[in-house]
């Protein structure tokens, strides 16, 4: 939790669903395993990407998602293929959650033709419209107005689909955030704003750039339903996102969810993070999402250690395969230099 003076105290936090979630509200085993698989896959792929970036083999700016795995898993379990997701440059877990293949993600990180953007977008520009992963952006907060436009389209066409947009805590200080929130509230759009509050705006702790560290309270000023949730708790987060998505489907307007986590690594894959208070980082690491959820699943008798080990091996193989695929994928050729850069004027001529 964030104390009144802005410091973080996680020593007393636990998985809230171990005490507050009754048996009837726990998803079935298949969903729980899906969530765990996504969390551990994200952790492993994140670790490997960071290692590759530090070694110089991955020559791109990679932004780790460590600490946010539970939020990503909850998003993946809550959304349908028809729903749309807009993410940030810290997007690995979000992309996996929406169904983008790890092979295409890694190929894009390496700038290869089999990547999500044919190797020309890089880590900050993943997208796969086939699965509803519409866009990621390298500009803080810029995904919010894009998501609002998608939500307006959903409202106008009556599709019943919801739009979810993820962003970090620092994005709540950007003008585009306030414009998007105001527009969504005014038009009662079917959108869920998911703030992945990892408590750091690059190298600045939240208490040093936000007079109120409880971002849900700031969001409520727009007359939007706003809620603060433990972002280390995958089931509490899943319940909050599912409820928000259902509100969107019923045309009851937008929801703002502040999912409180903690960044377990540096701002980028190669960044020094010695400035992070050691006691805060150690306390947060004790709640490392994937290992914590693993222990809880076994302790609650929802699965066995043998089954979890099997899921771990599957994730390890999946990650190894994706990196090998990316390394074997060719680089874009010169013939791709201007493709997707300039608009085709065929349509313009056809309507004249």
UniProtKB/TrEMBL annotation:
InterPro entries: DH_E1 (IPR001017), PDH_E1_Alpha_Subunit (IPR050642), THDP-binding (IPR029061). Gene3D superfamilies: 3.40.50.970. Residues 1-26 are annotated as: Disordered. Its cofactor is thiamine diphosphate. Residues 36-332 form the Dehydrogenase E1 component domain. Keywords: Oxidoreductase, Thiamine pyrophosphate. Residues 11-23 have a biased composition (Polar residues). Coiled coil: none annotated. This is Thiamine pyrophosphate-dependent dehydrogenase E1 component subunit alpha. It comes from Rhodococcus pseudokoreensis. The lineage of its organism: Bacteria, Bacillati, Actinomycetota, Actinomycetes, Mycobacteriales.
